[in-house]
Amino acid sequence: MTPEKFFPYQNDHMFAEQVAISELAQQVATPFYCYSQSAIEASYLDYQTAFAQQDALICYAVKANGNQAVLTTLAKLGSGADVVSVGEIKRALSAGIPAEKIVYSGVAKAEHEMEFALKQGIFQFNVESEPELELLSQVASRLNKEAAIAFRINPDVCAQTHAKISTGKAENKFGVPLSKAHIAYNRAAELPGIKIQGVDVHIGSQLTQLAPFSEAFTRIASLVEQLRQAGHNINVVDIGGGLGIDYQGEDLPSKQAYADIVEQTLGHLDCKIVIEPGRSLLGNAGILVSSVVYVKTGEERQFLMLDAGMNDLLRPSLYDAYHDIQAVNRVDKPLKPYDVVGPVCETGDTFAKTRQVHQSKSGDLIAIMSCGAYGAVMASNYNARLSIAEVMVKDDNFAVIKKRPSYEEMINQDIVPSWL
Ligand SMILES: Cc1ncc(COP(=O)(O)O)c(C=O)c1O
Ligand SMILES: N[C@@H](CCCC[NH3+])C(=O)O
User: Fold this and answer.
1) Is 124 in the pocket of ligand 1 (CB under 6 A)?
2) Using one digit for the tens of pLDDT, what is the confidence trace for 182-225?
3) By CB count within 10 A, which of 79, 167, 234, 398 is most buried?
4) What does the domain layout of the chain look like in residue ranges?
5) Which class is 105-277 in CATH?
């Protein structure tokens, strides 16, 4: 759960670092996302310490939270970036992450995206199919460049996570099947504009156990040995995303235990290790602050109706994901069971059912916890709801790091044809 250290209660009022959430809410209309810069820094430094023995390149998965202030925080700590689009490359570069620390994943990289990445000189393309390899070779040759590649290997390992975020089973769309890896590497060795440099694997997100990592990395290690025997130059192993996070009091392995598994399974290969954590850097560094609009007593239950909806935080609707929900002010308030819902016209716009929350009334502030990763980035404007603001806190300072647009800005994105 979101660490008390960065979102502590003082006299039963929630703070972000040293800034009262109620103070933020007065300055920034609810709903808004609030991130703790110190929490992001602490998670990054934990990874750096854990993976010091491998001298790993940490490439933050930009998809988890691409806000420029977040990326700048990580760039200043020396982070690289794992990206999946030109947009994410541009975000990373603009935050000061150098191209030589960027790895590019994704199953359907378009020609113009490859061209852009090649011109920047990124560290590695994680190639996910043979057709992608062929196109990359053509684009690199045309530009007189060389694309450094790893194939993303699908090891057919069950990640023991939610089916929608499991990526390393044979039935998933990701990567080249392990059984076809040799054919793919042999083909890559023949093609102009391609330099083989590594192997990549990512079996899924929100992994709470080490065994699936261990199984996947063991398969990758023996593949690397076979590829080397076949004459391929493999110097990099990209092990994909990081650990899951504690949403609900789960007992999670430490980053050090994760690094130890990497050392045990891959250490003997003497490869450069790349790791692409997203959720474990940002997830518990952010919350969604919302106001109670109404408390409604239904036939069977009480509803806390918030001003934040599924369009602002999709995870509960999409994955039935659990997020801890806290009253920002809990002075002398008993716990009560509520269905916590948003204003969107969908029954699925439900954050929690019969959840114990300190008794709340209209106007009270509610914090939905562990929202720093895959929160703001997955938001939409469904129901013509404006994107919400994002705020970053550091010690006793805060800054709005994304403004809420105006309704005019939203409407003016559309173009009415001249014949109407
Ligand atoms: C290729 C790739 N790398 C890294 C990540 C980040 O994973 P996580 O947020 O679980 O660390 C993802 C997302 O699952 C991914 O698809
Ligand atoms: N969006 C997912 C994670 C997807 C990871 C992308 N490969 C989540 O919120 O849990």
Assistant:
1) no
2) 999 999 999 999 999 999 999 998 999 999 999 999 999 999 99
3) 79
4) 9-36+283-411, 105-277
5) alpha beta
Which atom of ligand 2 is least distant from the CA of 165?
A: 4
Report, at the CATH architecture level, how domain 9-36+283-411 is classified: Beta Barrel (2.40)
Question: In b/e form, how buried is each residue of 197-228, taking b as 16+ CB within 10 angstroms?
Answer: bbbbbbbbbbbbbbebbbbbbbbbbebbeebe
Give the number of the ligand closest to the Cα of residue 275: 1
Contacts of 36 (CB under 8 A, 6+ apart): 6, 7, 16, 17, 285, 286, 392, 393, 394
CB atoms closer than 10 angstroms to residue 256: 15
Q: ipTM of the predicted structure?
A: 0.98
Cβ(315) – ligand 2 distance below 6 Å:
yes
The answer, yes or no, to whether any atom of ligand 1 lies below 6 A from the CB of 284, is no
CA–CA distance, 170 with 192 (Å, rounded to integer): 29
Ligand 1 atom at minimal distance to the Cα of residue 283:
9
The response to whether residue 174 sits with its C-beta less than 6 Å from ligand 2 reads: no
Active-site residue list:
345
What is the number of the ligand 1 atom nearest to the C-alpha of 277? 11
